[in-house]
Amino acid sequence: MLVQNSLTRRLEEFAPMENGEVRMYTCGPTVYNYAHIGNFRAYAFEDILRRVIEFNGWKVRQVMNLTDVDDKTIRGANAAGVALADYTKTYKDAFFADLKTLNIESAEVYPAATDHIPEMIALVAKLVEKGVAYKSDDGSVYFSVRKFPGYGKLAHIDFDNQRTGARCLGDEYDKENVGDFALWKAWEESDGPVGWDSPWGRGRPGWHIECSAMSMKYLGETFDLHTGGIDNLFPHHENEIAQAEAATGKPFVKTWMHCAHLKVNGEKMSKSLGNFFTLRDLLEKGWSGREIRYVLINAHYRAGLNFAFTALEDARKSLARIDACVEKATDGEAPAWALKHLDDFTAAVNDDLNIPRAFAALFELVREANSKGAEGTLGVFQHMDKVLGLIFFGKGGKEEIPAEIQALLDQRAEARKAKNWAESDRLRDAIAAAGWLVKDSKSGQIASRI
RNA sequence: GGUGGGAUGGCCGAGCGGUUAGGUUACGGACUGCAAAUCCGUCUACAGCGGUUCAACUCCGCUUCCCACCUCCA
Question: Which nucleotide is nearest to A236 (CA to C1')?
Answer without folding.
Answer: B72
